[in-house]
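Design request, tokens follow.
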């Protein structure tokens, strides 16, 4: 069960990210029960401040910041964006980020991955296949996250590895918000196995191309789902 701290953080954070609390405006009165103490509200505003969502000043209290001041890589900020009307934009930006970094990570991993990392990539790809008839479930999600986080780590680049949690947040968001099909795409499953195999063979170009194909498939699936949601909304 979520603590009072977590519930207030979620309420205020989503309020800012969704635009309900406009930039420059003070945070709304806590809409949680029981009424949080000053200690709790102070702790929550400090967390929001570290995310760049608010500015805290004496006497003025906490006021919402414009998007340019947010930390866009914070997993919680990503999760709030995916729960807001900004979902389509967030998914597009995250996919563009993946396009920019994951193929490069795959190429570097073909040069730098350790045997343990290659084994973990292979295990993850196998577990995705094993759970492919429940691709919108937790077991498939966990295998998918493990694959992509391991890939980023195997690049041997600390900056790329640090983006693993951002990619994990996107994958989690697709599942949490019903953007994943029940049955996994067969070509995507094969491509995950291909990436692991090419990395094992030290074929950087092939690994890069296979990883780019995975992201293109994901982009297509997201766009199809978004179009379906738009059509459904238009009928209401």
């Amino acid at each position: 069960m979520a603590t009072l701290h977590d519930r207030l953080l979620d309420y205020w954070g989503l309020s800012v990210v969704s635009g309900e609390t406009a930039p420059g405006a003070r945070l709304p009165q806590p809409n949680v029960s029981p009424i949080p103490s000053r200690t709790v509200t102070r702790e929550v505003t400090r967390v929001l401040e570290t995310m760049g969502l608010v500015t805290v000043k004496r006497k003025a209290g906490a006021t919402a910041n414009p998007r340019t001041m947010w930390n866009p890589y914070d997993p919680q900020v990503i999760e709030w964006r995916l729960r807001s009307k900004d979902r389509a934009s967030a998914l597009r930006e995250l996919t563009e980020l993946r396009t920019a970094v994951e193929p490069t990570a795959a190429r570097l991993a073909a040069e730098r991955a350790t045997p343990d990392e290659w084994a973990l990539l292979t295990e993850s790809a196998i577990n995705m296949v094993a759970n492919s008839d429940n691709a919108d479930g937790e077991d498939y999600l966990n295998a998918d996250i493990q694959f992509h986080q391991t890939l980023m780590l195997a690049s041997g680049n600390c900056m790329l590895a640090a983006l693993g949690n951002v990619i994990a947040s996107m994958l989690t968001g697709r599942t949490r918000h019903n953007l994943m099909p029940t049955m996994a795409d067969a070509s995507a499953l094969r491509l995950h196995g291909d990436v692991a195999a090419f990395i094992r063979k030290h074929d950087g170009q092939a690994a890069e191309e296979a990883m780019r194909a995975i992201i293109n498939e994901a982009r297509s699936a997201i766009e199809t789902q978004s179009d379906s949601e738009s059509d459904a909304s238009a009928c209401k």
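Comment from the thread starter after seeing the answer: thanks! Residues 230-236 have pLDDT under 50 and may be disordered.
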